[in-house]
Amino acid sequence: MTTDSFFDVVVIGAGPVGLACAIEVQRRGFTACVIDKGALVNSIIGYPTNMEFFSTPELLEIGGHPFPTSHYKPLREDGLDYYRRVAFAENLQLRLYERVLGLEGEPGRYEVVTEKGRIACRFVIVATGFYDVPNYLRVPGEDLPHVSHYYKEPYPHTGQQVVVVGAKNSSAKAALQLLRAGADVTMVVRGPEISESVKYWIRPDLVNRIKEGRIKALFNTTIRRITPETVEVQTPDGPQTLPATYVYALTGYHPDFEFLAALGITCQTDAAQTPTHDADTLETNRPGVYLAGTVCGGLNTSRWFIENGRYHAQVIAARLAGEAAPELPQVLQPVQLTR
User: Does the keyword field hold Oxidoreductase (predicted)?
Assistant: First the structure.
């Protein structure tokens, strides 16, 4: 397999943070390529159809490009249109639907190995997010065709019995949408209540629907087994069997640690399995290889997001250009996690 191109910087991950990184390094005179195994902003494509961002538009902007929208909080479609326009306006070099297999070479002379060839480069920025790898339940039947870890929309489930596993933002919004589309919804929650981290405009709605009995909820309950027509659970009062035509296991996601290992990036032994990197420079244990965005937090996937992760682009680009560390907004500081 021969090397088919050279760039100063290869950015792995074509999400908002990866695009921001490519923009910032290009503006400092570096050539850059953005590569992704999926589509442009692939994670946003995978979001629920009518998803509303939790942030206002100015907090989602990259590269100084205004985010025009008539919504106080942009919709998924707004985000897809915005990031596509920015990528084209900045003339970013995109290699989409091309999977990265590994990273070979030495600092300053790396080769990114893909399923289609090799890309020579001086530096690598990994901005792969966390949405590709679900937190699996690891129970029998999880691989059945009516079980999904990704929710799109409620309409196929009108009149159906749906089990939603989880109690954070994704599962809360899914349960409410399913209810209002005419589904019979049961939530299975490992903890004692709906998570306090659920957004303040969503949680009261869900809690009240549960109190009314319009949504059934089993707390302190775990999944034992999923069959084609039922979900077997363990409750504080003993085992129960729930009828289910569809199951949404919305228990979160995490970075692809196997992929990081394939790049030669190690992880710490802390509970979050934090990928090894310098907190100030974002450089990993491999010199010239950097992390940006959510992947920096390991299992702490609420630590970095578009709103603060986009500033990683400025930190990395300044370091590559030999510039002083930029003055950054307070939003760059990681948020306190709510467990």
Answer: yes
What is the phi-psi region of residue 291: left when phi exceeds 0, alpha when psi lies from -120 to 50, beta otherwise?
Answer: beta
CB neighbour burial string for 39-68, b if at least 16 within 10 angstroms, e if fewer? bbbbbbebbbeebebeeebebbbbbeeebe
Coil, strand or helix at 16: helix
- Maximum separation of any 2 CA atoms in the chain, in Å: 65
**Domains of the chain, each with CATH number or no CATH:** 7-133+253-332 (3.50.50.60), 136-249 (3.50.50.60)
For residue 8, what is the enclosing H or E element? strand 3-12
User: Cα-Cα-Cα-Cα dihedral of 264, 127, 37, 104, to 10°?
Assistant: -30
* Side-chain half-sphere CA neighbours of 73 within 13 A: 8
The helix (H) or strand (E) run that includes residue 18 is helix 16-27
- Share of residues in the chain with pLDDT > 90 (%): 93
Average pLDDT over residues 17-37: 99
Q: What pTM does this model have?
A: 0.93
Q: What would the two tokens of residue 240 be?
A: 């129960």
- Summarize pLDDT for 181-194 with one digit per residue, the tens: 999 999 999 999 99
Beta-carbon contacts of residue 298 (< 8 Å; ≥ 6 apart): 254, 255, 267, 268, 270, 272, 273, 274, 275
Cβ 119 vs Cβ 6: under 8 Å: yes
Q: For residue range 211-246, what is the model confidence (pLDDT) as tens digits?
A: 999 999 999 999 999 999 999 999 999 999 999 999
